[in-house]
């Protein structure tokens, strides 16, 4: 059963951040460049009903921003194993794409890019592209060297949904995009549409870290930073959580304002910001005194199990989602599309709308939106190549 820990005595504050009501608005706020490059949203895991009945706030990184906001602004926080696993996978995604040629022999036997094609029945307006993404993971597995690669990536936790499996599938495709091109060929006919946490889940994630050490020094350091964090996630399930565990949750992060200069985020949350979206490491071992100018004291420097957690500029927080181009042959007409997947929003609920353990923490029932959690999912849009080229020239993307 879930573990709920009361970290502080103060009451939860209301979540007042922007609510969006459509996939178009979500994309515009979560990723401006992708929105500017899109013609129309083809499909998304987030339904119209979900927008109407939930409070969804778009952000660039759902997990990091939710944890950062909950800690900084006193909101209740819900975290699923899937949220943490996606945060880790996306960081590795950036690293592998940045070091694709160095790692080529680790993953594949071929040179250049190999096209992977899935043929199915339907049209671009009726086909369920989540099925395409999940089928593609099996095709990918047949074309990579590691026999356990797909099983390692795909979440199988007690909280995992079909949407989570699709999200992981698209992240897997994005991670391998330097070695493969992905094509979905649709033909006429009746479309086939598939609609559909426990302590062990977190121990499962911890065990999966061992795989990273075969990818190089930086992934090994990344895994080293995550192990102390995950051990304490697991310890939260203890019948009587220790004071050490409570202290851990009290040190998620701290915000240091740099005045007219950059501001920084410290704490163990920075472990999930190891690389930027270009695969460049943000992890810098520095003397804690270097951050005294923003008010950070030497004793504020976090060390867990011998691993040091250094501040990250809040402006450098990497995206919480990955993207991959997909060519769609819709009964002879070609569409150049892009699939996005990961954690790109925060969903707000009231204490009365969540589990009984959280209700017990509330002094009285209230319908204010005081609880937030990362929202993972995926969406697909048709690319506007002219706008993409203009953005590349303007921003050097």
Structural class: alpha+beta
| SSE topology string | HHEHEHEHHEHHHEHHHEEEEEEEHEH
User: How would you state the average pLDDT, rounded?
Assistant: 85
Task: Find the count of extended strands (DSSP E, 2+ residues).
Answer: 13
Query: How much helix is in the residues?
Result: 25-40%
Largest sheet: 8 strands, mixed
Shape: globular
Q: If you compute it from the alpha carbons, what radius of gyration comes out, rounded to the nearest whole angstrom?
A: 21 Å
N-end to C-end Cα span: 45 Å
Poorly predicted runs: 189-196, 353-365
The total of helices stands at 14
Q: How much strand?
A: 15-25%
Notable characteristics:
DUF4419; eight-stranded mixed sheet; 13 strands; alpha+beta; 36% helix; globular; 397 residues
What do these coordinates show?
It contains 14 helices and 13 strands. By secondary structure, the protein is of the alpha+beta class. It has a domain at 80-343. Strands 1, 2, 3, 4, 5, 11, 12 and 13 form an eight-stranded mixed sheet that branches. A hairpin with a 2-residue loop joins strand 11 and strand 12. The N and C termini lie far apart (45 Å).
């Amino acid at each position: 059963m879930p573990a709920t820990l009361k970290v502080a005595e103060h009451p939860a504050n209301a979540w007042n951040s922007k609510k969006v009501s459509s996939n178009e608005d979500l994309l515009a706020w979560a990723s401006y460049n992708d929105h500017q490059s899109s013609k129309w949203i083809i499909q998304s895991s987030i339904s119209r009903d979900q927008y109407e009945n939930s409070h969804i706030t778009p952000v660039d990184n759902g997990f990091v921003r939710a944890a950062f906001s909950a800690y900084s602004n006193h909101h209740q926080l819900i975290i699923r194993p899937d949220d943490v696993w996606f945060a880790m996978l996306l960081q590795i995604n950036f690293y592998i794409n940045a070091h694709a040629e160095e790692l080529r022999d680790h993953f594949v036997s071929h040179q250049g890019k190999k096209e992977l094609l899935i043929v199915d029945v339907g049209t671009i307006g009726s086909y369920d592209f989540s099925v395409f993404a999940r089928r593609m993971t099996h095709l990918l597995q047949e074309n990579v060297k590691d026999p356990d690669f797909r099983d390692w990536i795909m979440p199988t936790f007690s909280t995992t949904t079909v949407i989570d499996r699709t999200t992981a599938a698209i992240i897997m495709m994005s991670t391998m995009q330097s070695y493969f091109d992905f094509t979905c060929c649709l033909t006429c006919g009746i479309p086939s549409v598939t609609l559909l946490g426990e302590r062990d889940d977190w121990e499962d994630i911890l065990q999966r870290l061992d795989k990273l050490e075969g990818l190089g020094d930086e992934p090994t350091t990344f895994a080293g930073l995550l192990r102390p964090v995950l051990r304490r996630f697991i310890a939260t399930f203890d019948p009587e959580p220790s004071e050490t565990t409570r202290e851990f949750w009290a040190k998620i992060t701290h915000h240091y304002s740099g005045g007219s200069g950059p501001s920084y985020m410290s704490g163990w949350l920075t472990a999930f910001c190891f690389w930027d979206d270009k695969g460049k490491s943000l992890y810098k071992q520095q003397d804690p005194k270097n951050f005294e100018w923003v008010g950070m004291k030497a004793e504020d420097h976090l060390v867990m199990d011998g691993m040091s957690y250094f501040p990250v500029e809040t402006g450098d927080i990497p995206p919480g989602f990955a993207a991959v181009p997909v060519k769609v042959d819709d009964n002879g007409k070609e569409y150049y599309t892009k699939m996005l997947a990961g954690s790109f929003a925060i969903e707000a609920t009231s204490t009365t709308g969540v589990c009984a353990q959280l209700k017990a923490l509330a002094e009285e029932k209230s319908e204010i939106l005081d609880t937030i959690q990362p929202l993972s999912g995926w969406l697909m849009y048709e690319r506007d190549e002219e706008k993409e080229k203009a953005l590349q020239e303007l921003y050097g993307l």
